[in-house]
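Today's session is about reading a structure prediction critically. Students often jump straight to the picture, but the first step is always the sequence itself: look for stretches that repeat, for charged clusters, for runs of hydrophobic residues. Only then move on to the predicted structure, which in these notes is written as discrete structure tokens rather than atom positions. Here is the chain we will use throughout the hour.
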Amino acid sequence: MSLRARLEARRAAADARPYDMRAARAEHGGPRWVLVVAYGVTAALAAGLGAFLDPSLVVLAIWSCVVGAAVALRARRLFVRRHGAADPADAGPLPVTERPTYDPQVTGRLVLHRPTSRLLHRPRSYRVLVDGVKAAEMWHGEPTKLTLPAGRHDVRVMIDRVGSATVPVDVPDGETTHVVVEPIASGLEASLAEVAGQPVFTLTVGRPRVTRYR
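Below is the predicted structure for this chain, in token form.
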């Protein structure tokens, strides 16, 4: 199935169903309850062993439960802020006048450039989402070229379950639009950036400033 057909199918499916927060959490958040249960069992075992071995383990287990509950509550609030029904665009299907329409005969080119990245990111690929649909994978040192229907598209780059903010990109008829994708953090810094609600990638629309790729 071509990218254009996948985009149209994704839009039709999104318009046909209302926003489901439970389904969104299952898609974006993963089985968090498994981690919560495992964390609770570990804390209970530590407390039980501490009663016989070292009372300080009981204090450590209680403190770990308090910290874990605070982190889980913070993550829940961030999830509701990002994916809750407070966003009018997620409350239901858009009116017909606001839905993007494309002429299949009018196309343009979108080129994504990946500058020299850190050592940990070099062997990994970035997933490129166009209008919520995976369009390509970016590898180190290789520009990604996409032919899209002319118009405005929502572009996002992901790695694992984190990624950039959604950036609207205009693709004119018969012209080429360049987007520079640059990671702003890696490893632990990326995890902290996700908790803080910051994007892991910076997408710069315009002419690429990078002159050399390895």
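Discussion point for the tutorial: The helical segments are 3-16, 21-28, 32-52, 55-83, 188-195.
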